[in-house]
């Protein structure tokens, strides 16, 4: 006799249909099968039946028939006349499958003791704690008899959707396309593309092998909710295959708005992609997207041009190119946004580019990008910048990290710099940025293109920390009138090769730069011995620079400066000078220094020609006791107040060679010893000393006098208290 087997995988247990009716996509993640190799068996002839359980590649969002559906207990209903004689199977045998154990095997040996015309072996499964009172579901059956029959192929293997009595074949896409099937629903088993597909008689969509399958003129469409999975389209991150074309097709489809990238085995490889409007990309934690290192001079990995409503989100996700292959050029960015609106990028790193990690700018038809949020992003080892902000309105950058930029200038962590006068820098908000070890500055701001325009600069940077870049922050090249404000709040600049902060050739009529509560630690690692270039914070103009009449409009509020090194390197805390001598340093403030530690007390402040300089010293960090030494005033020895509190005899202060408009200085008598102020031989102190070269002095405790240099040979008394006498 010929025996025959069939693989019916059925979930037809009516008793649980009501329970499962809400889960129309419920499915068993395990395929069970009964089969035998026996052909001619007779009465009392022993044969073996094999039982197998295979864990399927079913999408994570599928609803399962059982809780803890990878664990099970089994029962077999035996046909009349069959007796079990051996094998590893017994009723209520239990097991659990996993990625490390995807299959289980059992055997059932037995024989027919009477000549039955036919019999059915029914394999039932239930949950891992099932007993005789539990519901069991039929998952396969083996028809076996003593007469010949027709064997049903594996393509007729069925399961039923929970909640309705209809049957679903487990098939590959190729099998579905090659047969004529009456099923209204199928489960596709192809690796990475597995899922439930339903026949849609009204569909006209083309077969894409991902969302739609055409078989015998019938269209089956994937049942899913949420984003599409790029693996459904054959995009599998093997670290080798170039998926540029396949991913671009997905992005170009208007019927797909949300796209998911599972974490690849290695990486997704692409050259460049053009983002479209109304797209949401989510990338599983740890995903890597790697460039081919073949971008042209003006090509970018991810281009956003005049698009809107775009979101790209992940956690610990890296986009990277092959920087070593780009030995020229500076435009091969990872992410570029030109004239975009409503774009969010979150949790993404952009590394190893031939240009910038991120770039925000304008397009010919939209002169700014608007409502852009960059959240928890980072950029490392890029050729030109971590982030460039060229033109934008309402740009938020929250908790970014930009490091190790090197290759071509400016090599900054962040560069804020318009290219043309018709661009915008409005509502730029950067919060908690970290920059470190950039060849250029942590943050660069260059706004010269806005001079003489009606543009209003609005930039606020909060809690910036830089560690080890050339400058912590660098502002330069503003050579004319510009309106607006640039604000740093609570920055920490440390271990910089040059200054913690530097404003270079920045016009006093440009928008105000306000630096609130800055901290500078151990800057000037390069070891300059110059009072300007070895300072913690510098406002100056270079010797040969051109620009506006005066530089300045920088306001330093409540600064803290530390040099904690054994070998001190900071020459001064604050330096202000127009080295070109073209004009003055104007409209600047130094308000209430809070900490000045580890510096030479004689060199806290270096001042040259100043105009309209606001200075206060509530913490008396710029107050100096001349003690037992006579003093000579120089550019690098500015104090707001000199006094003689610990002097034990006559002490002199020589008013040597200071320029007009030098900040006013107060001299106080705090002990009953003579404090003598000596002008140069051709200088006068008006109005109390009209004769050239005559000193003034006092030994009356409480006496004080404030002097200001108003001309080359003239000091003027701004305020005088107590008794001061003039040399006879």
Automatic annotation (TrEMBL):
Superkingdom of the source species: Bacteria
Name recorded for this polypeptide: Right-handed parallel beta-helix repeat-containing protein
């Amino acid at each position: 006799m010929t025996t025959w087997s069939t693989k019916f995988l059925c979930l037809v247990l009516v008793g649980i249909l009501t329970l499962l009716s809400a889960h129309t996509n419920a499915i068993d993640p395990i395929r069970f099968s009964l089969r035998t190799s026996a052909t001619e068996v007779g009465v009392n002839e022993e044969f073996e039946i094999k039982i197998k359980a295979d864990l399927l590649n079913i999408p994570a969002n599928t609803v399962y028939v059982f809780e803890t559906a990878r664990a099970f207990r089994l029962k077999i209903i035996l046909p009349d006349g069959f007796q079990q004689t051996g094998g590893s199977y017994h009723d209520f045998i239990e097991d659990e499958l996993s990625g490390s154990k995807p299959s289980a095997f059992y055997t059932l040996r037995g024989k027919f003791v009477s000549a039955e015309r036919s019999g059915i072996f029914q394999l039932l499964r239930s949950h891992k704690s099932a007993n005789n009172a539990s519901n069991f579901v039929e998952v396969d059956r083996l028809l076996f008899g003593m007469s010949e029959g027709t064997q049903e192929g594996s393509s007729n293997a069925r399961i039923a959707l929970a909640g309705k009595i209809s049957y679903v074949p487990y098939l590959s896409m190729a099998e579905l396309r090659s047969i004529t099937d009456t099923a209204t629903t199928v489960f596709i088993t192809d690796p990475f593309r597995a899922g439930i597909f339903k026949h849609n008689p009204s569909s006209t969509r083309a077969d894409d092998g991902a969302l739609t399958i055409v078989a015998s003129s019938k269209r089956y469409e994937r049942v899913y909710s949420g984003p599409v999975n790029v693996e459904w389209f054959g995009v599998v991150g093997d670290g080798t295959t170039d998926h540029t074309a396949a991913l671009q097709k997905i992005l170009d489809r208007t019927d797909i708005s949300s796209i998911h990238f599972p974490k690849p085995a290695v990486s997704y490889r692409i050259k460049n992609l053009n983002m479209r409007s109304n797209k949401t990309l989510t990338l599983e934690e740890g995903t890597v997207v790697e460039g081919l290192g073949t971008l042209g001079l003006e090509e970018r990995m991810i281009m956003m041009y005049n698009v809107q409503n775009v979101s790209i989100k992940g956690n610990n996700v890296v986009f990277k190119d092959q920087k070593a292959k780009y030995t020229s050029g500076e435009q091969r960015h990872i992410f570029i946004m030109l004239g975009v609106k409503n774009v969010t990028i979150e949790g993404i790193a952009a590394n190893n580019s031939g240009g910038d990690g991120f770039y925000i700018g304008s397009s010919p038809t939209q002169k700014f990008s608007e409502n852009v949020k960059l959240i928890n992003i980072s950029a490392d080892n890029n050729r030109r910048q971590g982030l460039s902000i060229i033109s934008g309105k309402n740009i938020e950058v929250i908790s970014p990290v930009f490091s190790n930029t090197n290759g071509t200038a400016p090599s900054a962590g962040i560069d804020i710099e318009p290219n043309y006068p018709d661009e915008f820098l409005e509502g730029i908000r950067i919060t908690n940025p970290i920059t470190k070890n950039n060849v250029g500055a942590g943050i660069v701001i260059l706004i010269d293109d806005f001079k003489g325009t009606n543009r209003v600069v609005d930039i606020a940077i909060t809690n910036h920390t830089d560690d080890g870049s050339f400058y912590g922050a660098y502002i330069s090249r503003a050579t004319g009138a510009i309106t607006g404000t640039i604000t740093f709040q609570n920055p920490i600049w440390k271990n910089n090769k040059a200054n913690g902060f530097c404003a270079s050739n920045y016009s006093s009529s440009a928008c105000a730069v306000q630096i609130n509560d800055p901290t500078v630690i151990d800057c000037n690692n390069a070891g300059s011995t110059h009072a300007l270039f070895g300072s913690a914070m510098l406002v100056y103009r270079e010797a040969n620079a051109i620009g506006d009449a005066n530089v300045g409009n920088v306001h330093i509020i409540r600064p803290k400066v530390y040099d904690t090194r054994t070998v001190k390197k900071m020459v001064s805390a604050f330096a202000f000078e127009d080295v070109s001598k073209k004009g003055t340093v104007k409209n600047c403030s130094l308000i209430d220094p809070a900490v000045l530690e580890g510096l030479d007390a004689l060199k806290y402040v270096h001042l040259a020609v100043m105009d309209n300089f606001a200075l206060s010293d509530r913490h008396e960090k710029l107050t100096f006791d001349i003690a037992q030494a006579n003093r000579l005033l120089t550019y690098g020895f500015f104090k707001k107040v000199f006094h003689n509190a610990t002097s034990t005899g006559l002490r002199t202060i020589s008013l040597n060679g200071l320029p007009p408009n030098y900040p006013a200085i107060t001299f106080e008598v705090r002990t009953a010893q003579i404090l003598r102020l000596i002008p140069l031989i051709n200088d006068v102190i008006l109005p109390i000393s009209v004769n050239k070269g005559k000193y003034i002095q006092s030994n009356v405790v409480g006496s004080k006098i404030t002097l200001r240099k108003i001309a080359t040979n003239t000091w003027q008394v701004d305020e005088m208290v107590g008794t001061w006498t003039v040399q006879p």
